[in-house]
Amino acid sequence: WVGQNIWGTTIYRALVEQFGFTGSYSSVRRLVQKLRGKSPKATCILEFAPGGAAQVDGGKGPTSTDAFTGVVLATWIFVMTLCFSRHMYAEIVADQKLSTWLGCHRRAFEFFNGLPTKLIIDNTKCAITRACFRDPEVQRSYGELAEGYGFLISPCPPNDPKKKGRVESGVKYVKKSFVPLRDFRSVADGNRQLMQWVMETAGNRIHGSIQERPLSVFVGSEKALLRRLPDVPVEL
Question: Of 163, 151, 175, 210, whose CA–CA distance to 62 is shortest?
Answer without folding.
Answer: 175
